[in-house]
Amino acid sequence: MFEREVNPEDIKKADFVVAIPSYNEADSIALPVQQADRGIQSYFKDMRPVIINCDNNSGDGTKEIFLSIRTDTPKIYISTEPGVKGKGNNFKNLFQKIIDLGAQGVVVVDADLKSITPGWIRHLGGPLFQDFGYVAPLYVRHKYDGTITNSIAYPLTRSLYGRRVRQPIGGDFGFCGDLAKIYLESDTWSDAVANFGIDIWMTTIAMNANIPICQAFMGRPKIHRAKDPGADLGPMFRQVIGTMFDMMVKFYPFWNKVKWSKPTSIYGFGLGETEMPPPVKVNQGFLFEKFQDGFNRYRDPWKRILQRETDTKLQEIREMDQDRFEFPIHLWINVLIDYAIAYRDRVWEADELLDSLIPIYLGKTLSFVKKTERMSVKEAEELIEEECVQFEGTKGLLLKRWDTRDNQ
Q1: Which domains does the chain have, with CATH numbers?
Q2: pLDDT in tens, 81-134
Q3: What is the Rg, in whole angstroms, of the alpha carbon atoms belonging to the chain?
């Protein structure tokens, strides 16, 4: 039987919320709930706290498992209507509930986390009561984990909006109650934001609302259902990148004045030992094959989307064999500029346009994997930072292209 809300202790007001979005997470939600409860009881007990499971009406018993877990912190279950899916839709419910409860601080953690500790609640929640309004996570990640973040979300967000937030789509974060109202009233809601676009949307809006932002050093890796960088892209890629491009159009008056980026404060850095992340296996042959397939599958959209010079350079690297494959960073930046402008100008149907970027992105990913094979996590991180500087150095080209309607 569908229940929009279950509030066993009839909680009407709360100061501090830990929210856990879910869809069919009956087998994994217990650990995040238990660790959230311990974190709350250790660090936020004096406030009026509550744990909220914002769910997509899961059919696997997620609600029943969540409500049955013994905690010292009160719990509330809220759900989207039957048939309404998407993480962003869960958050829409959450934003309204935060406003209703009058909460000052909110921490969000994923329901499939295996590495969460009580300290994560402190790291993500503490800064919200120390003059920060948005807290992004800073995990220790394997060099091949989070390649959309490494190649697109981090360098592009940093270059556009001038803030170095290393994990703008990290999935676990903190935000103040005032932001919930800003989010709920935003006119930029879309189908993509209702799904996987939600994280980058929240980070981008916080940056453009001049909310004080910090990063929370988590001290250990994010371990959850890991994915090969080449697998399971489709909808997630479209929703994240489409949201970024939509935000570029919306916030052009903000980012066209931003010259360079500045560092973002890190909360909790150096607390205890740093745990190294588990390995991520990458199928290089698969990445190479998908890149090559793109030339046959997306020949027509590429001709419309890419500038002639960019297309010619892409054809040149097509001739490289897998062992010597390299995708230059300046070419990748030009590809993203071309795609952002083509998306804005609707030169091709949006979903197919975004899908056609995937093979090129996989080629860039393969190049990164090959370059960093013998590098440590730290050395790979330094390479990403170098690429970010090149993104920032090309901002003038982006602005010039953005301000001139393309007549190719």
Answers
A1: 5-267 (3.90.550.10), 284-403 (no CATH)
A2: 999 999 999 999 999 999 999 999 999 999 999 989 999 999 999 999 999 999
A3: 21
Residue 13: burial class (beta carbons within 10 Å; 0-12, 13-18, 19+): exposed
Contact 139/171 with Cβ under 8 angstroms? no
Residue 217 phi, psi dihedral angles, 5° rounding: -75, 120
Task: Give the model confidence (pLDDT) of 146-193 as tens digits.
Answer: 889 999 999 999 999 999 999 999 889 999 999 999 999 999 999 999
Residue tagged 């599958």 (tokens): 297
Q: How far apart are CA 348 and CA 342, in angstroms?
A: 7
Whole-angstrom distance, CA of residue 206 vs CA of residue 195: 18
Q: Say which residue the tokens 């920060």 belong to.
A: 132
Q: Which two tokens stand for residue 283?
A: 């199928």
Q: In percent, how much of the chain has pLDDT > 90?
A: 86
- Residue 120 tokens read as 């994560």
How confident is the model over 204-221, as a mean pLDDT?
A: 92
Task: Evaluate whether 134 touches 52 at the Cβ level (below 8 Å).
Answer: no
Tell me how far CA of residue 292 lies from CA of 58, 138, 296, in angstroms. 39, 34, 8
